[in-house]
Fold these 2 entries.
Entry 1:
Amino acid sequence: MGVGATQELLPIELGESFTPFDPPLKWAGGKRWLIQYLTSLWAPYRNCRLVEPFSGGLSVALNLLPEKALLNDINPHLINFYQWIKKGLFISIPMENDSDLYYAHRNFFNDLIRAGKSKIRQGAELFYYLNRTGYNGLCRFNRHGIYNVPFGQYQKINYRRDFLSYQKLFMKWEFISTDFENLILEPTDFVYADPPYDVKFTQYAEEDFGWNDQIRLIEWLSKHKGPVVISNQATDRIVDLYEKAGFRLHYLLAPRQISCKGDRSKVQEVLGVKNI
Ligand SMILES: C[S@@+](CC[C@H](N)C(=O)[O-])C[C@H]1O[C@@H](n2cnc3c(N)ncnc32)[C@H](O)[C@@H]1O
């Protein structure tokens, strides 16, 4: 496989006037570092709808700032939080970097989940607090759907109560929580797919995203007539899969993320591009 920074896909100088929104949550696999490359691919399509089947922490949409977007993630609590921002979210629960409060809020959040009520406003407020205060921004559930991330032990946390600055932007975007394959694409949509990495174990939501899902995804994306970009860890089988599906490949080095031990080793990442 061809390894190394690509010659063809050059990063765009984002310039001083570039003022991205900070993603409101901490999220594993954030793609902020990729924005300089995605911006150059997106620029000719900026009037199209941006579709992100794996929108996660929104680092891409909040940097590309499309006029129209369909942002999906299988994690229902994450999408519920964004939907509440759309309605106008102000957090009123107590928020402190304190383990007793963390576990009390975690219990309350899990009570809401058990009662099937986690979509109420308080569910969104608790989700934000747990995300910021829990271990490493992880979002992990046991097989009964119960949130089980331990306290994070951060030195300092800057909590936000007011999300009104995001509201105007989110009003233009549609948020959905479903498996990516249920999304209905328009032929002119610009799709950026950022699935969980191809590694043995991933636990972003209740279900792992296994090799069959990686295949299912590339088959689904291959049917799309419009522009598609996909990113993943450049494992041999991923490179082979994307190449066979007719994607043009670029290799990039990604910083390793979500590491409590300050692990700075880089990940070899592949960017697959089609119909661009
Ligand atoms: C690598 S993260 C995306 C990160 C995002 N690009 C960002 O910048 O924050 C992958 C996301 O895929 C979601 N996911 C996992 N399986 C999924 C599925 N079958 N359909 C849709 N989303 C899924 C996870 O919940 C997770 O948020």
Entry 2:
Amino acid sequence: MPAPLVYQSNNKSPQKRKQFVQNMFDSLVPTYDLLNQILSLGSHRKWHRDMVSRIGRIEGSMVLDLCCGTGDISKVLIDRGAKTTSLDFSLEMLKRGLNKGALGAGANIMGDASVLPFKSDCFDAVTIAFGIRNLPDLDSFMREVNRVLRPGGKLIILELVRPDNRLMRAFYSLYLKKLLPIIGGIISGRPLAYKYLAGTISTFVHPLAISEMLLKRGFASVANYPKTFGVATVMVCAKGGV
Ligand SMILES: C[S@@+](CC[C@H](N)C(=O)[O-])C[C@H]1O[C@@H](n2cnc3c(N)ncnc32)[C@H](O)[C@@H]1O
């Protein structure tokens, strides 16, 4: 039986919320990849490929994959010839990524996506898939990513969001409230963790508000590409200064 996970989604301290999220992802590793496959009905692979193709010329470029988890995005990047650095604060996720051969060929770092251990202007692109809605300090995340990108470099965000269409949003909200915690809970044995994850989608800031924040924090342009009836979005954000 897995140890019980304390449910602290209403915790106001960013450090405590990070600790909670880190412990939660450590505990979800055994069934994480399987559940991603089931809960996205296989769509996540298509979204991954779409996200990576938005970088543009990729062979030989320096790419940082933040909140890399078990390394699915990093693997696509490495397979396409990017010099990839992968970062996550869950050691168990990183270990699984190494064991399944997704992370082996790049530099792999255990660290916080909002406090980056890299010098300024050193990456051509930064990717983050299903990570930003877990970050309690979006402001420092955006400033840090902007700092480590070279002028003209791109931040590509893939995230689950609420569809704009009212009918779709009603169906999706039912799915998030009822089905996702039940399926996730049964398979992982962690119903509260999947309830928390569904909650982070229901309460996360709208992509347009994220775009505004990015523009205020030094990005020159942001474009939004909704996916699969608007349940996910790919955001392409370019740093200015070329
Ligand atoms: C939903 S998973 C996504 C993993 C992977 N990108 C994917 O597409 O499957 C979110 C990941 O973000 C990581 N994470 C959350 N907050 C983080 C932070 N502040 N710094 C680094 N990693 C973080 C978690 O440990 C987890 O592996």
